[in-house]
Write a structure and sequence with these properties.
The chain has helices at residues 22-34, 38-47, 71-84, 91-98, 126-139, 143-155, 173-185, 201-206, 233-242, 279-297, 314-326, 330-343, 345-351, 353-365, 378-383, 413-424; strands at 266-267, 270-271, 301-303, 311-313. It is 42% helix and 2% strand.
């Protein structure tokens, strides 16, 4: 989501390891950890500014906590999840998101004064922008906003075809994947978005593929960034979805649809089959890595701060479910889905709108009912974290439980997870929400 996972390279996501949208979270974490790159200075300045949580939050915003790092991310995921299950969001919620766009088409995480033009130092964020594109394209009626955002995303593509959360920084798998999802959502063919050196987004994404490198249990994995390359489940889930040209919303293939995963054929640390690996093959290899990790850890993925005991990572697990469903691996997606149904409710209550959205999208991708998710009505709970929907089939938003009162705006503990993942991967990037939690 997710994102990621599914909130970005700046302050995540997403789309992470904060699922959220973890996608976003991972990215943000990276940015903060890199410290010396262009992004850190801007975020250091933002961190020193008064907390938006201490002020009255703007009308239409989902969540109750400080949105300065994930406002657009969590808003986008919430709107997208609502639309996916037939809920028509409140007009104020949509207007808030549209109003966050800068004149050049980019979105940042949060603009407290959207009436003022974005300054040159305003930190534009590809993850937040790509998430907004996916939401507004799905809602319809915002063609100009979407076109401007897509135009900006294309203008900051790296020469190798990838994207970073913060333009001008080295690319990463999560950011590249969420932009691919945005291009697809906007009705464009991602492969047609070539860089100045004629590299496609898929070319850029596959640079993060480890393939047969490293230990056997890492075959098929993706790394977050090339620097300090190491297997990363969050990046792999994002890449396995993005490599198929899909975004946060994956249409269910049906209860009986199942294609076995195919691990890469490896020999002596290299792919046996000569020639380049296609994006679809890379996605399948990534799915195989995720299945192996899920089975190894008890149907869920793990995350941990350096030196800390590994803990179940709910957001990354939800992103993995979406990735497996995107590849047609229905039976493999079902196993971690069952784990989520039993274990994700408390996490979502603590994490807020992006987390609820991430679970809604995981349920949707597998053809499950998000209104009866292990005893939790995810749709009603999501609706309760923001303004009352304009139209909501089934239970009404005002009947939601008090879970939303514990909302942390999609960040909370997942900010910490995002940092941990970034360090663990030897990256140095961090935060955006998912990024939720992207999500």
């Amino acid at each position: 989501m997710a994102p990621t996972a599914s909130l970005p390279q700046q302050a995540p996501a997403p789309h992470s390891g904060a699922p959220l949208a973890r996608r976003a979270a991972t990215a943000l974490a990276a940015a903060l950890v890199l410290g010396a790159a262009a992004a850190p200075a801007a975020y250091a300045a933002a961190a020193g500014s008064p907390s938006a949580a201490a002020k009255k939050l703007p009308e239409g915003l989902y969540g109750t906590k400080d949105p300065q790092y994930d406002g657009v991310w969590r808003q986008s995921l919430a709107l997208l999840a609502q639309h996916t299950v037939g809920v028509r969001p409140a007009g104020s919620a949509v207007r808030w998101l549209v109003g966050q766009q800068c004149a050049d088409g980019a979105f940042t995480a949060f603009r407290a004064e959207p009436g003022k033009p974005c300054a040159a130092k305003t930190m534009r964020d590809t993850n937040q922008t790509a998430a907004a594109v996916q939401a507004l394209a799905a809602l319809g009626g915002h063609g100009d906003t979407v076109d401007k955002a897509v135009g900006w995303l294309k203008s900051v593509q790296n020469d190798d075809g990838s994207w970073s959360s913060i333009p001008g920084s080295p690319g990463d798998a999560n950011s590249t994947s969420v932009v691919i999802g945005a291009l697809a959502a906007a009705g464009q063919k991602p492969a047609s978005a070539t860089s100045k050196k004629h590299k496609t987004p898929y070319d850029g994404l596959l640079t993060f593929r480890l393939g047969c490198a490293g230990k056997k249990d890492a075959h098929g994995a993706f790394t977050f960034q090339l620097k300090g390359a190491a297997p990363n489940a969050d990046a792999t889930a994002a890449a396995a979805t993005g490599a198929l040209g899909k975004g946060f919303v994956v249409a269910p293939a049906g209860p009986r649809a199942h294609t076995p995963v195919t691990p890469p054929a490896c020999k002596d640390g290299k792919d046996k089959k000569p020639g380049p690996v296609s994006a679809v093959q890379a996605a399948d290899g990534g799915a195989a890595y995720l299945v192996a990790q899920l089975d190894k850890n008890g149907r869920h993925l793990l995350s941990a701060m350096p030196g800390a005991k590994p803990q179940p990572d709910v957001g990354n697990t939800a992103d993995a479910v979406v990735a497996l469903a995107a590849g047609g691996h229905g039976a493999d997606a079902r196993r971690p889905l069952v784990w989520l149904q039993k274990n994700a409710a408390d996490w979502a209550r603590r994490s807020g709108p992006a987390a609820y959205a991430q679970l809604v999208l995981a349920a949707h991708a597998t053809g499950s009912d998000p209104r009866s998710f292990g005893g939790t009505d995810l749709v009603t709970a999501l609706n309760a974290t923001g303004p009352e929907p304009a139209a909501a089939p089934g239970k009404h938003a005002k009947d939601a439980d008090a879970a939303a009162k514990n909302d942390d705006g999609g960040m909370g503990p997942w900010w910490i997870v995002g940092v941990g993942l970034a360090f663990g991967a030897g990256l140095g990037f961090l935060l955006s929400g998912r990024k939720r939690d992207r999500l």
